[in-house]
Amino acid sequence: MLHPSALFLIIVAISAAAAHGHAANGTPAARFWEEVLPGTPMPEAVAELVQKGIDHSPLVENFTGPYLSIGMCLGHVYVSVCSVERVKKAGTGLFFHEEQVRVGTTMTVSFSPAAVPAILPHAAAAKVPFGNLTAGDVAAMFHIPPGSTMITQVGDTLRACQTVAPPHHHAAASERHACATSLEGIVRAALRTLGTAAGGGVWVAASETPRSGLPLQPYAVDKVTPLDGDSHVACHDEPYPYAVFRCHKIGLSMTRAYLISLRGLHGGPKVAMAVICHLDTSGWNPAYPAFEMMGTKPGESSVCHFMPYANLLFGVKATGAMESF
């Protein structure tokens, strides 16, 4: 295996070459998306991260980390690296009951500004042996100080991605997951975790939260659109110098998904939010922050959460149903 510094020089050359490519809608990532997910527009936030990976590659430019990612708090298997305090820093109202997903309800919500790093071009990402790296390797490649908050976060991400979730006796607590470092990898990981090889019968949804976040205020639910399927895959960004997404599915036939329209009661534009609800939490870890924040215990109620900025939700279309979101 190459020394991390030598490997880094190779990757920088590949990334720099990619920077002279076409506009976002002509990138290999965009063509792949259109081919695999026909009729499904790429979410704007994701398209921006793809373009950023070409114009301002984190493999070329100085890394500034750390950044706040809520992704690790959206998979109950990894509660050891999450806390109520971490969730609160990311925003207000992230977790809620499914009963709140109906027109006319009011939800107090806020989201901190998002700092998801650029998504690497597939050619560059393929050269990084992500599955074999250690936190020390990453610290050396990106000049991250040992003992820093960021290197701790990087270690959490590597452990989550490199460890196979252990089997659990309860179906609601079993989790399938896979990590990816390019858009092509994210889509393939999601389809594989969803259990389908073809994307033509799959829908993709994302929240339309601006990168600058949402201000704290009460929001009225103006519209609710149920999304097809009863088993879904969510892909969340994890703390790393460049974009790493972990796609996971918890349990079998135990989720519902929605698109809801929120309207700030103190002003501001309407925003469409993707939502996933986990219906059976009886096998979940009691230490999962959602329970404390919602005032419930495992098995007492569903746990729903919004999809954060640039995070993706995948599901299987019903026959003759929706074409895209």
TrEMBL record:
It comes from the Eukaryota. PROSITE patterns: BURP (PS51277). Residues 1-23 form the signal peptide. Residues 95-317 form the BURP domain. It holds the Pfam family BURP. Keywords: Signal. The keyword Glycosyltransferase does not apply. InterPro entries: BURP, BURP_dom. PANTHER family: BURP DOMAIN PROTEIN RD22, BURP DOMAIN PROTEIN USPL1-LIKE. This is BURP domain-containing protein. It comes from Urochloa decumbens.
